[in-house]
Input
Amino acid sequence: MLRRRGLLVAAAVVTAVVVGTAPAAAGRPGGQDVEALRAALGELVRQDGGPPGVVVTLDRGHGPEALTAGVADVATGRQPGADDAMRVASVAKAFNAATALGLVARGELSLDDTVGRWRPDLPAAWSGVTLRQLLGHTSGIPDFSASDRFVEALLASLQDPPPPRELLSYLDDPALLFPPGTQYRYSNSDNVVVALVIEAATGDGYADVLGEVVLDAAGLDRTSLPGGTALPTPYLHGYDVSEVPPEDVSTLVAAGWSWASGGVVSTPADLGRFIAAHVRGDVTDAATREEQFRFRPGSSEPPGPGDNAAGLGLFRYETRCGTVFGHTGNTLGYTQFAAATADGRRAVTVSASAQLTPSTSPDRFEELREVFELATCAALAER
Output
């Protein structure tokens, strides 16, 4: 079981449905969208293999609303809320991109800067890879988290991660998988390298730069990048739903094992504020944001709603109700979706307390992906 868990981390009861503050108005279009979402949330947490709890936040330009289903903690039956801490999984990559793009806007980095310029200690094969290619997952650098040696090290020391630079040392062969810029291939290595470049360019630790450039600027006082296993209280407990009853794995693995690629801890409320600011371009400038919004075929992992395309630290989701931009993520105990309209005036997040993927739980994941779409429709509807 632990080996299966490790592979998932490496890549990534009681039922109650409650509408939070400022509920949507009844009737078309907003009321029906919210009612459909509410019903889908209730059904999802009732299913065998479904997450014990789900939190959805909607901001339709008039302040945030929250819908919740299930429980935050199976042991106590506590209801989840928008201020519960949780692991955001690969949505951390969007935080990483926002930090890097903020430094580009300040002139401290350039999208054309190469790995070799800032990190000559990394493999020579990567020296010509640019920041733009790293952020767009077109670098060709293989994914350290897919390495058997990484999985073995993880399982041997779940709560004691190595220094971030050593994450890349688990690659058996650092050779590029393809010439940089020629293909799209999602890789956890890309964002670790970006963070190492940020440290070299600023002379400060990545977590400190993230805090100054993004978290402080966006007023995210319940978001952080820890190294260990602890979560602030209260938190949305994450579960291994392959076990009966579901096993609480919230604090099983230290965040340092994914670091800039997946280690951020936030809340649904903070995540909604972040994604709106990130998509709107609050920490960057117009020219850099234009580069960020150049999209090519490529899906986030897990796939987001509708048709997916990849930009720089951002994905475009073309849904049946309209287009939003954001990121998804999954890790042991959690699956995440966060997106906003291009102007940042509408935002949506979905946080589920189980890792659901197309390969390990296809039926439940498709139901969750439909929740992503329904939540997007609700966010885009009139109140």
Observations:
- The chain has a mean pLDDT of 92.
- Residues 95 and 212 are 12 Å apart (CA to CA).
